[in-house]
Amino acid sequence: MNPVARLSLAALRFVAIAALLFATLLPFAWMISTAFKRNSEILVFPPRILPSHPTLDHFREVFFGGTVGPYFANSLVATAVSTILTLALATPAAFALTSHRFPGDAGRHIGLGFLLLRFLPPFAIIIPLFVLMRSSGLIDTVFALIIVYTAFHLPLAIWIIQPAVSQIPREIFEAAAMDRAGPLRTFWSVILPLLRPAIATAAAFCMIFSWNEFFFSLILTTNKAKTFPVLVSSFVTDSGPDWGTIAATSLVAITPIVVLCVLLQRHLVGGLTSGAVR
Description:
Strand order of the largest sheet: 1-2
Strand content: under 5%
Helix content: over 70%
């Protein structure tokens, strides 16, 4: 490739990356800017990126308005417990689907069936799910959200962890068998430590999806168990959206996920590059 073509390709790549970063980061920059703007500045034209008179009024409304605590606690409990349950079920399931010899390569088809369940539209099952939860007395409870989140994220977690199990050399299983380790001991002492990157990847995805989930929380809760995304939507009233409070609440909502991704970055990179996600 001649130098001119190489330079043109590099320039095109730079423009594409810059455009992608701009489209990705602009909403976040605008949200941060809006969170610190006064209401009189938010909808001015032409729009201003930086607030001329920064204020913390919207954050005071979020933290001292008396509503954030319960919503945050509900989201935290539903996300943490559902993620733990999902990983506790998905990891041995992925191990069994990969290590057990199913007739006719049925294990691969079972794993694909689990993945197809993840693509089931939530609105397709919300009516029978609502009836089931109401008859069980679970409407407006965090436990209902935990059940739903675990059921919906379990196929995804299995799909993420299963390829990582399949990449473990068979010699490791044979060495464990020679040491007279049973399937449970092999899984707990040998296989599980090797799956930490894949498990971290699955945990991150489950936490992000659970924390951001809106539809089920809106339908299955009425007051006591509502989560953070529902709180954000509550600032859209008949008089119009309260953009400043929405931006401040959204900024508070994404902070735990950003911190989580930073802390799990090393494991996420290991899980993604080792084939945990195909």
